[in-house]
Design goal:
This protein is an all-alpha fold. The protein is 68% helix and 0% strand. It has one domain (15-175). It has eight helices and no strands. α5 packs across α7 (143-165).
Length: 176
């Protein structure tokens, strides 16, 4: 993994290159943490904030970790805003069409159903590629706790994935 650091004062790197290099990682993190419906907004807010702070980012900074930290904070803001937003109770919301059209939609749904800390640990380590020490700093707690939450999240995803694929005992009896 190529770690892009903030340029030295001799010449600022164009911010467009930062977006092109890290945009997909930040979007994956946003999808995993806030869900596919709010991911685009969180992604946009992340890069708007990053653009404002780009000129004062210290040289030598780990840009990917910096962006994931901003995405983490924007995701928390999105969760807080969603809690304050009223939701109708007499009419169930319709689910949108399957945007991805394949197994990835099921995977994103499974990631979205993980408990918050597990979901964030899986997203920050496995999707953004951050080391466990940085994941721990983002979610709070020790590096060991972040590893445990990430491992528990991956185990839950595997369990759910393989339970869906395995035919039920009654289905096997019907085939006979």
């Amino acid at each position: 993994m190529d770690v892009l650091t903030h340029p030295e004062p001799t010449g600022p790197e164009p911010f467009e290159r930062v977006v092109a290099t890290h945009g997909a990682v930040v979007l994956r993190v946003c999808r995993a943490v806030v869900g596919p419906d709010a991911a685009d907004d969180a992604w946009s807010e992340t890069f708007l904030s990053a653009l404002r702070a780009w000129p004062v980012l210290p040289p030598g900074s780990d840009v990917r970790a910096w962006l994931v930290t901003i995405a983490h904070r924007k995701a928390l803001d999105a969760h807080r805003a969603a809690v304050r937003r009223p939701t109708p109770t007499d009419v169930l919301p319709e689910r949108g069409g399957d945007l991805l059209g394949d197994w990835r939609a099921d995977l994103w749904e499974a990631v979205g159903e993980l408990p918050g800390k597990q979901r964030r640990c899986v997203a920050y380590h496995h999707l953004a590629g951050l080391p466990w020490s940085e994941v721990a700093a983002l979610v709070g707690g020790s590096e060991a706790a972040a590893r445990r939450a990430g491992a528990d999240g991956v185990r839950a995803l595997r369990r759910r994935w393989f339970e869906q694929e395995a035919p039920s005992p009654t289905a096997r009896e019907e085939e006979r």
